[in-house]
Write a structure and sequence with these properties.
elongated; 85% helix; mainly alpha
Length: 68
């Protein structure tokens, strides 16, 4: 079983994931992805990565709260 992240590290990881999500949907990025298919699919990858990071952070924070 993998060890859990420390709560502070998990919050930081979740914040980084949220930042990736927000940057990926900003209007300048959104308009750039409309004009370029490669950027569009890269945007999908960034959104997936941000969601993955937030999911890992939430899992570890929830597990830490349940252990106490």
């Amino acid at each position: 079983m993998a060890s859990l992240l420390k709560p502070r590290t998990a919050v930081l990881l979740g914040g980084i994931g949220l930042l990736l999500e927000v940057v990926a949907i900003l209007p300048p990025v959104e308009s750039a992805t409309d004009a370029n298919a490669t950027l569009h699919y890269t945007q999908h990858g960034v959104l997936f990565s941000g969601g993955l990071l937030m999911g890992i952070a939430l899992r570890d924070l929830l597990a830490t709260g349940l252990r106490r």
